[in-house]
Amino acid sequence: MNIRAEVWSPLQNTAVWLGAWLHGLEATDNLIDALTDLGGEGLTGVLRDIRQVAGGVLAGEEPVLRLVLSGPGEAPALRAGSAAAEAASRSGAGALVLRDADPLTSHILVPDSGGNWQWFVEEQPLPAPAWLSPGEADQLLTQATNEAARLVQASGYRSDALNSPRLTVGTLADFYDTPGLPSAAPVRAAKLFARADRVAAIVETVTGRMGDHRIDPELLALWRHIRAARMAGVAYSVREFGRLT
Q1: How confident is the model at residue 212 (pLDDT cuts 50, 70, 90)?
Q2: Which residues have C-beta within 8 Å of that of residue 231, sequence separation ≥ 6?
């Protein structure tokens, strides 16, 4: 199993960059450079369409753009059985959901492994997102991490390479941090993303780099909270961009 594919989401930063651009806080050239770094250059051909869809709904409390992630045991928060949900499940990378002037219509962009994107128009209500605040998402991730640590300790798990994970986590954390966020990204969201990156790096270190799977159940339970933190951070960022403009 590719652990990194489950705990890291370049779509997270793609969504934040798109949100900043839609609200006029980033230039198109900067956005295109970021999309290229993030592997989302396939979106460059539909930026005009994205702006046309989102241009009339930038105001309001609900963010114009949000991130949908899923993983083992957690279906994407899209309409069950829809083409968009099936594509997102196959992709494994997640999806971006754009609001429409029609409150019942959503536009769903799903990347595939080849760098291409599928655009779906959904004319039925989508499942309501959790709408966690950064503080709530951070608290849930912290609690889950502490509980996982407690379970690992209670299991009597020991490793002769205890120093190795720490070094590897530092290296992976640098990887997860790149290529960064737009300058307008809220500090609270950036901190939440950083915590998610740190926990993701720990999970990958122990299960992937060290090849030790004795505590997989304890660590893999963190995946859901990592994804929730990323989705909450994106929604908060895009909402805050709207308040800046």
Answers
A1: low
A2: 66, 67, 68, 69, 129, 130, 132
Q: Where are the domains of the chain?
A: 3-128, 134-230
Structure tokens at 152: 């690992």
Sign, CA torsion 16/26/116/201: negative
The C-alpha atoms of residue 120 and residue 88 are separated, in whole angstroms, by 11
Mean pLDDT, residues 45-71:
93
pTM of the model: 0.89
Separation of CA 219 from chain center: 19
Task: Yes or no: say if 200 and 173 are a contact pair by the CB < 8 Å rule.
Answer: no
Q: What is the 3-state secondary structure (H, E, C) of 66-118?
A: EEECCECCECCCCCCCCHHHHHHHHHCCCEEEEECCCCCCEEEEEECCCCCEE
Beta strands in the chain (DSSP E): 65-68, 95-99, 106-111, 117-122
The Cα–Cα gap between 28 and 111 comes to: 20
Rounded CA gap, 71 and 92, in Å? Answer: 7
The candidate with the shortest Cα–Cα distance to 98, out of 189, 10, 18, 44, is: 18
